[in-house]
């Protein structure tokens, strides 16, 4: 008689982020029972499946953790504080310490964590904090599988969206020296593949695995490949004298949405993030492709997600409301204005149909002609 072993009960933190959101979809597709812990349960409304439960919890609030971790076998820890406060390192340590202690008390069998690649010495504050978080989680006594990755290529990944924003906006870029820094980018789908594959490994010991794509390239090469696939002509002019401080100011001017985390992100980009131990290829059945395929997949997935939006009255409900009145759909910012007119739709649209004809362009005819 064959007895089917019950599937492990999973806790997922960070489900509102780009990695956590994709991981949630992958786990649900495989039929795993998932419990999501978030500070804002309303942010997951309509995004979690019928079998997925959502609980309120905060890693900086120890009292909120026992209920979230009760009965859990594997807990995914996808939490970081960069951009939240100036002292994000202390917050990261406190959050990991609270989570690890609560997981040990709850009898969690394994914690899965995504850290960052990079040699132990000379790390930026951001990468150093990622390494420290893994150490703090291991100190809890709960076995930890840490996947250390470099830049993640996929919609919503901060580093990829930074590259995307720069390439889309600037035909000529006066670039800091970090555009020459070597990195081993991995597609978001492949990182998620590793995270799911961890569930098939026997528990009992802590391990650190380094994961990356097939190609070691510079950040400048990633920018050029993105531009090539988007059909954009771009020129990169590296300037070695551009300090991290000036570099972060430049980043804030050209991509204001990243200004808050600009300095920490730039410091991290100066560190080589290359796989030095390929043990993950032997331990997991994941074979990440090279740069070209990873960038193509990221662009295709983002465009497909955006194109699937129905541009009707409730189109904006598909996105996340922003304080200035627009919404974010995937990585696109959308602002919609409307005015009610006392006439039939055809009559209201008639002036638009006449644009460019005998009526001209209503403003600046000489520009269009």
Keyword list:
2 domains, single chain, seven-stranded parallel sheet, Rossmann fold, 369 residues, 13 helices, globular, alpha/beta, disordered N terminus
Could you state the CATH homologous superfamily of the largest domain?
Answer: NAD(P)-binding Rossmann-like Domain
Class of secondary structure makeup = alpha/beta
Oligomer: single chain
Helix count from the secondary structure assignment: 13
How many beta-strand runs? 16
- From the 3D coordinates, which CATH architecture of the largest domain would you assign? 3-Layer(aba) Sandwich
- State the domain count: 2
CATH topology (level 3) name of the largest domain: Rossmann fold
Radius of gyration: 23 Å
The run of helices and strands is: EHEEHEHEHEEHEEEHEEHEHHHHEEEHH
Low-confidence stretches: 1-5, 308-326
Strand content: 15-25%
Shape: globular
Question: Biggest sheet, open or closed, and with what strands and sense?
Answer: 7 strands, parallel
Tell me the distance between the termini.
80 Å
- Give the helix proportion (percent range): 25-40%
Task: Give a quick summary of the entry.
By secondary structure, the protein is of the alpha/beta class.
Can you walk through the features of this model?
The chain has 369 residues and is an alpha/beta fold. The chain has 2 domains: 10-305, NAD(P)-binding Rossmann-like Domain (Rossmann fold, 3-Layer(aba) Sandwich); 311-368, no CATH class. It has 13 helices and 16 strands. Strands 3-2-1-4-5-6-11 form a 7-stranded parallel β-sheet, with helices on both faces. A 3-stranded antiparallel β-sheet has the order 14-15-16, with no helix packed on it. A two-stranded parallel ribbon has the order 7-10. Strand 5 (110-116), helix 4 (125-139) and strand 6 form a beta-alpha-beta unit. The longest helix is centred in the first third of the chain and has 19 residues, at 88-106. It is globular and about 75 Å long.
């Amino acid at each position: 008689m064959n007895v089917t072993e019950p599937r492990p009960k999973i806790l997922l933190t960070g489900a509102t982020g780009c990695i956590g959101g994709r991981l949630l979809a992958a786990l649900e597709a495989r039929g795993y029972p998932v419990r999501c812990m978030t500070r804002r349960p309303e942010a997951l409304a309509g995004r979690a499946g019928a079998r997925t439960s959502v609980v309120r919890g905060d890693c900086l609030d120890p009292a909120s953790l026992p209920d979230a971790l009760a009965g859990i076998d594997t807990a995914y820890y996808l939490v970081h504080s960069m951009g939240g406060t100036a002292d994000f390192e202390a917050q990261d340590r406190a959050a990991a310490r609270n989570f690890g202690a609560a997981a040990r008390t709850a009898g969690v069998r394994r914690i899965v964590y995504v850290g960052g690649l990079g040699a132990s010495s000379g790390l930026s504050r951001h990468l150093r904090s990622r390494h420290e978080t893994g150490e703090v989680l291991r100190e809890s006594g709960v076995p930890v599988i840490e996947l250390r990755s470099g830049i993640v290529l996929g919609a919503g990944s901060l580093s990829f969206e930074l590259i995307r924003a720069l390439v889309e906006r600037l035909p000529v870029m006066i670039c800091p020296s970090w555009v020459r820094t070597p990195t081993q980018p991995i597609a978001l789908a492949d990182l998620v593949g590793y995270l799911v594959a961890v569930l098939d490994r026997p528990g009992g010991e802590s391990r650190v695995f380094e994961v990356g794509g097939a190609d070691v390239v510079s950040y400048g090469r990633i920018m050029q490949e993105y531009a090539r696939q988007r059909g954009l002509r771009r020129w990169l002019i590296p300037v070695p004298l551009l300090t991290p401080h000036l570099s972060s100011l430049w980043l804030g001017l050209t991509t204001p949405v990243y200004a808050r985390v600009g300095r920490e992100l730039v410091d991290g980009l100066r560190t080589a993030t290359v796989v030095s131990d390929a043990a993950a290829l032997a331990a997991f059945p994941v074979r990440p492709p090279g740069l070209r395929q990873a960038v193509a997949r990221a662009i295709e997935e983002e465009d497909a997600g955006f194109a699937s939006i129905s541009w009707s009255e409730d189109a904006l409900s598909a996105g996340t409301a922003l304080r200035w009145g627009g919404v974010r759909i995937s990585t696109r910012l959308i602002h919609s204005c409307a005015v009610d007119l006392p006439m039939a739709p055809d009559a209201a649209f008639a002036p638009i149909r006449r644009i460019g004809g005998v009526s001209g362009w209503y403003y600046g005819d000489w520009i269009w002609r």
